[in-house]
Amino acid sequence: MLAPVLNGLEHNSQSYLKQERQIEMNRNVNLLSRLNSRRLKETIRLFIGRGCYDIRQNQPRRDAGFSLIETLISMAIVFFLLIGTAQMLSYSLLLKQKADTHRIAADLVSRKLEILKSLRPDDALLAPGIHEEIVKDQNSDRHFLLNWEVDSSGEMLKKISLSVFKRPYAGKPELKVVFYISNSLKF
């Protein structure tokens, strides 16, 4: 008794769904017929196989992404910029290290000059000849060689050439200073 009623409901629901689908298709057809066929061709794209094709030209689209050549060129540009930046950074660190060494050498020379100027003219450190002293900088814990040569141009005037070498204490000095001490003028 319930079976014929259920069959009737099932048949009615299927026919209702078919009617709804038909109405929806009619709406879509009406919408498509309203659109201009040229405009429709411009907006519809077919995705076939490997790439994206445009219906109006039947050619692969060029705006689908970057090509391998473009990617390689951009990577090469970035690589050269990074190499240039790295070289500038290493060069600036080298210059900073040289400037620090030169500043320390100037500080050591200044201290030694004050010591030598405060000595009496007949002191052993002001005797003619070459004198050396290894000095440790208090701030950087680096060792330097202070080398001064005293040349006596008579009793009244002494020429002192003071040089500072960094380790390994050979080659060109970091800083070289020449000054004169006069006994008669008291400087």
Structure summarized in a few sentences:
Helices cover 49% and strands 24% of the residues. It has helices at 2-34, 37-43, 68-118; strands spanning 45-48, 51-54, 129-136, 143-152, 157-166, 175-182.
How is this fold's topology laid out?
Elements lengths: L1 H33 L2 H7 L1 E4 L2 E4 L13 H51 L10 E8 L6 E10 L4 E10 L8 E8 L5
Antiparallel strand pairs: 1-2, 3-4, 4-5, 5-6
Description of the structure:
The model is unreliable at 45-51 (pLDDT under 50). This protein folds into two domains: 2-54; 93-182, GSPII I/J protein-like (Pantoate--beta-alanine Ligase, Chain: A,domain 2, 2-Layer Sandwich). With 187 residues, the chain is α+β, with helices and mostly antiparallel strands. The protein is rod-shaped, with a radius of gyration of 46 Å. The N and C termini lie far apart (135 Å). It has helices at 2-34, 37-43, 68-118, and strands at 45-48, 51-54, 129-136, 143-152, 157-166, 175-182.
Oligomer: single chain
What is the H/E string?
A: HHEEHEEEE
Distance between the termini: 135 Å
| Main sheet properties | 4 strands, antiparallel
Radius of gyration: 46 Å
CATH superfamily descriptor of the largest domain: GSPII I/J protein-like
Uncertain segments are 45-51
What sort of overall outline do the alpha carbons produce when their principal axes are compared?
rod-shaped
The amount of beta strand, in percent, is 15-25%
Q: Regarding CATH, which class of the largest domain?
A: Alpha Beta
* SS-based class: alpha+beta
Bin the helical content.
Answer: 40-55%
**How many domains?**
2
Query: Please, what is the average pLDDT?
Result: 78
Number of helices: 3
Q: How many strand elements?
A: 6
